[in-house]
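Open question from group meeting: does this chain pack into something compact, or does most of it stay loose? Before anyone orders reagents, we agreed to write out a predicted structure and look at it together. Recording both the input and the output here so the notebook holds the full record.
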Amino acid sequence: MESAVTTPAFANSPHALGAADEFGLPAALEAEIRAIYERSPLYAKRFPLHDGRLQWACYHELPVLTKQEIVARGHTEFFANYAEVERGFAQKKFEYEHTSGTTSGPMTVVMEEGWWDAQTRRAYLAHPQLADYVGRPYRKCVLAPVGCSSNLCPYEDHPFPHRYFDGTVYLNLSSDPFSFPEGEWERITRELQAVQPEVLEGEPIYLSLLARALRKRNVSVPSVRTIILTYGKASRQHSRRLAETFPGAAQVDLYGSTEAGYLLVGDALQDNLRVIDGNAFIELVPWRAADPEAFQIQVTTRDRVAMPLLRYHTGDIVRRTPTGYRVLGREKDLHTRADGTVVSAFEIDAAMPPAFTCWHWSLVGVSENRWELQYVADHGAPAGLDVALARALGDGARVRLFRRKFIQPAASGKFALLKPLAS
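Structure tokens returned:
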């Protein structure tokens, strides 16, 4: 039986976590926990802390926070006097965002002024390609999921000049549907050509469809040096289409969430994601005994005043690799074979033959051992793709192929590459 005082594993660098002994927590982690308790009354209601030094046995007793609990309690539970927060909204000292995540209802997230900008700055400093943009002016275009709102994605139905904020143009319009009509791609193409951005940031699938629109119009944007993949999980198909359309541009994977901030950064699809140590502590929780390098993650935010998170269960699974980490995806979006092998979008990518190229795909479970590959492409799939995917899924799976004009996302505007049947 596992001891109650087992020291948990963290994905942070040892320097960021600090030294610890067999029983006591590292000073940096303990200081953050106590600061979270001082800032938010929620945590003392759930589990009171003693005054002495925190030991690992006490840390293990801290209840894990979930999205479902935040929705059930309501975001106001994080604050002793929510009237002060409401005044802060009027004075622009606080802002709020709604995110759906994995919950059935919307979750409200309150942020203090400057928190997201500080998160972004630390994230950029944690990657050599992005660090070059810190402290100097540069031009950036963002193509975010249409469900994004608030000041994080400040776009409205305004003419182009009025969507230009501190060198950044938000290409979306709030009334955009999930699939952009040709008129919208014409507008976006013109704005890209006008801005000539160094940085292009967006949801990988949206960016892939943007690449398709540019290729269709024989338009190039040679100014783009860096592509930041965020908001959702990328496929190698998306990465390759972007590389073809923006040759020479580095692709960076920036992973996080609205409620927790930016957590991991690395080279896109290179298995070298690293924790942004200044933003969060990330605890690694063993997921399955048969797969010792795969973990659930629990996040404790750092230096956050409004709605700090302590041992927050994100719902994501990561794999530890020799060079860092790979985000496998949401636990609900992973398929497990009968032998315990986990199948993620990475394994599906690997099963796709080189002759198959598409702009977007989604592999959907429709019944027991029956799947559909829905894909957006300019040509049909090569022979044998269905067999290759079925082999990757295992257990006698059968796959049918469906070429689509578009694939509809969830209500949040995000996509799932792999959608197994709900267990």
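Observations to bring back to the group:
The two ends are 28 Å apart (CA to CA).
Residues 34 and 45 are 14 Å apart (CA to CA).
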